[in-house]
Every structure is written in structure tokens, then in C-alpha cells.
Amino acid sequence: MNCSKCHGLMVNDRVYDAEEAIFDLSIWRCLNCGETVDPLILQNRLKQEQESNALPIKAA
Predict the structure, then answer these.
(1) How far is CA 13 from CA 10, 18, 22, 30, 39, in A?
(2) Distances, alpha carbon 44 to alpha carbons 21, 32, 41, 51, 57, in Å
(3) What pTM does this model have?
(4) What value does the CA radius of gyration of the chain take, rounded to a whole number of Å?
């Protein structure tokens, strides 16, 4: 998987709360720029893309 910002290598990583071990989330992190992407971020980006493609284009 490549980063959408810098096209660098994305690696699978985990985010968790070390003290209480309650929060555990699988994410993708770019090795070049540090961009992080989780399933919710991907879902929202796809939704925004679909909405922007569905908007009618106004004639000048």
C-alpha cells in the first residue's frame, strides 16, 4: 500500500493504550511522512470522494 500524500511505503501498525490496554486499533502508517490511516478514515475519505463526484457541475 502506498501513501496518498507522499506515495511512500505504508506499513501495518497498532495503536494502543499502554496503561489500561483498552484501546487497540490497527492502522496503516507511512514510513516517509508519518501519515496514519485507519478503517474509519478510509471510509470517510471514500464517502467524501463519492459525494464530490455526485455533485452536479454548474454551467458558466
Answers:
(1) 9, 15, 17, 10, 13
(2) 26, 23, 5, 10, 22
(3) 0.65
(4) 16
**Alpha carbons 48 and 19: distance in angstroms, whole number:** 35
Phi first, then psi: what are they for 52, rounded to 5°?
A: -70, -30
Instruction: Return averaged pLDDT per consecutive 10 residues of the chain, 60 residues in all.
Output: 92 81 82 93 90 70
- DSSP lists the bridge partners of residue 8 as none
Question: What type of residue is 20?
Answer: E
Query: What is the distance of C-alpha 17 from the center of its chain?
Result: 20
CB of 16 closer than 8 Å to CB of 25: yes
Q: Which three cell numbers stand for residue 30?
A: 507511512
